[in-house]
TrEMBL record:
Predominant location category: cytoplasm
Gene Ontology cellular component terms for the protein in this record: cytosol
Gene responsible for this protein: frr
Domain of life the protein comes from: Bacteria
A GO MF term: ribosomal large subunit binding
Transmembrane regions: none
Protein name: Ribosome-recycling factor
Family recorded in the similarity comment: Belongs to the RRF family.
């Protein structure tokens, strides 16, 4: 058995765990916290020219003030389609048209809505934790295969500890991100 077969690819595990974290940050960015953010319209797709197209590929999205998002639609023919896509997106914001510019005034969040968003953020964080634990499980499987290939007990313990340490750090990072997002959501 080659020595390479007894190595665990920690870089790959780290990269996959980081991927879970970046997906979480992307999901958090789409949560409306009462502050305007261009990323809140990123998930919205518009039926443009016969294909579902991300809103930022048919318009310029700006945040001119803390409680306003403006969407400057490039093609006049798409203004109504963009407006319809925003209304159907579940953002809970009523767009206001002004020529080719659509304005999204961001209302203050009430306490009930803040609590709902906080729960959604917690669900996103739990999905990220599950993803990290799945990567950890894959790492443990690699150790089992390496054990079958002749890895020593001591090496197994070292790799096991490395993977567990990596997992613990990622879970702690997810928990910190969740706490910060929930504070941001609950802030009046």
């Amino acid at each position: 058995m080659a020595e390479d077969d007894l190595e665990i690819d920690l870089d790959d595990l780290q990269r996959r765990m980081d991927g879970a974290m970046s997906a979480l940050k992307h999901e958090f960015a789409s949560l409306r916290t009462g502050r305007a953010s261009a990323s809140m319209v990123e998930p919205i797709h518009v039926d443009a020219y016969g294909a579902l197209t991300p809103i930022n590929q048919v318009a310029t999205v700006n945040v001119p003030e803390p409680r306003m998002v403006t969407i400057n639609v490039w093609d006049k023919a798409l203004v109504n389609k963009v407006e319809k896509a925003i209304m159907e997106s579940g953002l809970g914001i009523n767009p206001q048209k002004n020529g080719t510019i659509i304005m999204l005034p961001i209302p203050e969040l009430n306490e009930e809505r803040r609590k709902e968003l906080s729960k959604v953020a917690a669900q996103y964080a739990e999905h990220a934790r599950v993803a990290v634990r799945n990567v950890r499980r894959d790492g443990m499987e690699q150790i089992k295969k390496a054990k079958a290939a002749g890895m020593s007990e001591d090496d197994q313990k070292v790799w096991h500890d490395e993977i567990q340490d990596l997992t613990d750090k990622q879970i702690a990072q997810i928990d910190r991100a969740l706490e910060a997002k929930q504070q941001e959501i609950m802030q009046v």
